[in-house]
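Hey team,

Filing this mostly as a record. A colleague (T.K.) asked me to run one chain through the structure pipeline before their review meeting, and I want the input and output archived in the tracker in case anyone asks later how it was produced. No errors, nothing strange. Just documentation.

Input sequence:
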Amino acid sequence: MPMVKVRPIEDDISIVSFNYDDVKIGNDKDGDAREEVCDEKVDENKKKVEKKKRNRVSRFFSTWTSTVPEAVGVTGLRYITSSQDSILRRFVWYVAIFGGMGALFYQATDRAVYFVGNYKTVDVDIEYGSELVFPAITICNYNTFRNLDLDSLPFGQMLSELNGFIPTPVNYTHYAILMGDINATELYLSLAHIMDHGEMFNFGTWDGFTFITPQVFTRVITDFGVCHTFNGGFDGEELRKVQVAGKGHGLSLLLDVQQYHYYYSKSLQYSAGVVVAIHDQDDIPLVESFGLAVAPGTEARIGIKKRQVNNLPPPYGVCGSRDLKYFSSPYSMHKCQRECLIDYIQASCGCVEPYMAVSDNMTVCNPAIIFSCVHFLAYKLNVKDECDCPVTCESTTYTTSLSYSRMPSDFYSQKLLDYVAELGHAVEEDHFLANSVMLQLYFEEMTTEVITQREAYTFFAFLCDIGGSMGLWLGGSILTIVEIFDHLFQIAFIEGATK
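Output structure:
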């Protein structure tokens, strides 16, 4: 037993001191017993909480299963939850409902994958019109530079070295010095064939019997050289239209390619004749890539059909637009690619070729630099991979069909020789076969082929398919999904089944 000493002090409270190490309050076994009792109470409380949670879930599902047949309009649910029906009947309805759910899930997944695939369809429609705008017609002589005593000029000497059958190195630095002050644009224009009487133009008619003059053509510089455009709509020119299809209601031209003026061209062009590009007035002519070649001694009938293409932007298609720096609206992929080429050439060569000088502040290259730098890099550039030019969303193009015949016949060849002789011009017998080109350009039909990309599968079509699948397999609809969520909300929060 521990000893407790008390020292009494008069008129004061006694002070008791003791040693903690020597004092033990109560029994050790009694303390352990009390700790065990506390642990048991904690475990018991946890069990009560868990039981209460289980009771909440149980009450929720009990309430849900007992009320869902009346709250959700799915055929057969009441047979599954009914305790009054036989096990066989309930099993059959289990198979039917869960089988329907499986079929619904499969179809819904299939439709969802198709919807997110952003597929498109292409509609082709034929629109009939009483009047059609005639396209722009750009005509280029196969020969780029006329031989106007070029053999004695540095430019002609450079062309002869460049276009020889056996390739030889050309000293472009030497020629650049010799032609340092030459304006390449003026040089191209002065050496090009001229669309005029006594030159390339013999005669022409429009829409049957309306004779036209060379003044209806506008001289333009293209990637093929100096060319001549009919119905280009330049400077507010009123566009020509036709009301009747067929050969007699288009453009007819008799041209002279002037082979006696042919010389080395800007590239190895061994042929004679003309190149014809048919394009929309809002686009640029790509004669080098899409021009139609017509040989001399030939009548070419070129039937034209108009086509309107309407493409979809992403995610369904790839069309788009960009702001153009050098060309006026509307946007076209060809204009964008031309701007990309201009910037590339200007950055690499420090100047541009005449057909690229679409802005007054652009420097036109010396002829020697055009052949040594510009032409080499222009062919090297892959505009598809290196230029960010999306496909045009709305564009007008023209498809063509060609047929050829020999012109003139032997009979009319002599008649033409007599006619030219009366005019005071002496030509050889084979002159027309070697130089004459007859062009007949006309609309084949007064129609426009409209090709339109459309969304193959819209969001509302997706909803309709899901609703149709629910109705087919479960006898439900989109509103059934609303009923399910509404019932969950009512049971869980409004009626307090989980409290």
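Quick notes for T.K.: The first helix runs from residue 28 to 71. The two ends are 58 Å apart (CA to CA).
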